[in-house]
Amino acid sequence: IWGLAQLGVDGEILPLLEDQDSEIRAQVAKALGNPTNSWAAKPLESLLHDNSRRVQYFAAMSLGKLGLGSAAPLISLLETNADKDRWIRHAASFALSKRTTSKGLASLQKHASQSVRMGCVLALRHQNSPLLKKFLNDPSSLVAAEAARAIYDKDITEALPALAKS
Questions:
Q1: What's the Rg (C-alpha) of the chain?
Q2: Contacting residues for 137 by C-beta, under 8 A, at least 6 apart
Q3: 100 CB contacts (<8 Å, ≥6 apart)?
Q4: 166, 136 in Cβ contact below 8 A?
Q5: Which among 50, 68, 67 has a CA at the least distance from the CA of 27?
Q6: Which of 17, 32, 134, 142 is the most buried (most CB within 10 A)?
């Protein structure tokens, strides 16, 4: 799979996304994470609902590597995962950081799901965004604490006054 992807014949591995073996699907998802494969976004988004978390992980990471696109499938993944698997949360937040603007992520500060808000905080951390300050007063102490840690650890000076007030 890796060899075919390196040769640039990704079309030949695309049918393997439906293979019975979850490791085959995972490796294809991983191999499609090349920024030149923008055509692979839709097939990768469908893998976010795969039964295998490993497949979901590689699909989300590859979507992040492809760049801008819809945040909706990743938000759905965060919601469905509900913080059960930290690797999935990491992959989804990484992909969100690459596919969504800081403003778009901050607009989700009132999302009903704590898992989605946490994913947005982690994505904003990847972006070193001062909009992390919007999450400092989150109803969840876990989300608020993560926003505070991100502001402090990343030394986001624009958000430090808000951190000092919280």
A1: 17
A2: 144, 166
A3: 68, 71, 123
A4: yes
A5: 50
A6: 32
- Whether residue 17 contacts residue 9, with contact meaning beta carbons closer than 8 Å, is answered with no
User: Do residues 21 and 9 lie in contact, with contact meaning Cβ atoms separated by under 8 Å?
Assistant: no
Own/partner long-range contacts of 74-80 (Cβ < 8 Å, ≥24 apart)? 74/48, 74/99, 74/119, 75/108, 75/111, 75/116, 75/119, 76/48, 77/48, 78/113, 78/115, 78/116, 78/118, 78/119, 79/113, 79/115, 79/116
Element (H, E) at 143: helix 141-153
> At which residue do the structure tokens 């090349």 appear?
34
| Structural contact between residues 30 and 62, judged by C-beta atoms closer than 8 angstroms | yes
Tens digits of per-residue pLDDT, 46-92?
999 999 999 999 999 999 999 878 899 999 999 999 999 999 999 99
Angle at 107 between CA 103 and CA 110, to 5 degrees: 155
Distance CA 92, CA 84 (A): 13
The per-residue pLDDT for range 103-122, each reduced to its tens digit, is: 999 999 999 999 999 999 99
